[in-house]
Amino acid sequence: MGFQTIGVKDIERYLERPNTGLIDLRSREEYDVCHLEGARNIPYEDLEEYKDSLSKDTAYILYCERGGSSLMAAKELSREGFQVYTVVGGIRAWQERYLS
User: Fold this and answer.
1) Are 87 and 69 in contact (CB under 8 A)?
2) C-alpha 12: how far from chain center
3) Residue 20 burial by Cβ neighbours in a 10 Å radius (0-12, 13-18, 19+)
4) How does pLDDT run along the chain (100 residues), one tens digit per residue?
5) Phi and psi (nearest 5°) for 4?
6) Can you say whether residue 51 is alpha, beta or left, with left for phi > 0 and alpha for psi between -120 and 50 degrees?
7) Which distant-in-sequence residues (6+ apart) come within 8 Å of 51 by Cβ?
8) Are 74 and 85 in contact (CB under 8 A)?
């Protein structure tokens, strides 16, 4: 199936689509400090145990700190039939665009 990369400016447009979710792959501590509104926290190292709670009828936008973990997660999930997008530059890119 594959996955797509999207820029931070595209996140809201993708979230307007039906059956789309947002997953923050950073640690609980990082998530508690700052996260995108509506994001569900599933730390990358815990992703395997949470896969059963994800629906293949939902498209997921994944992000992490800089984009590395979300890229690996997108590869894994897309191989298993999930529709996923990964945010280029992660939350750092979002912070630079919207909080600077």
Assistant:
1) no
2) 13
3) middle
4) 589 999 999 999 999 999 999 999 999 999 999 999 999 999 999 999 999 999 999 999 999 999 999 999 999 999 999 999 999 999 999 999 988 7
5) -125, 150
6) alpha
7) 77, 80
8) yes
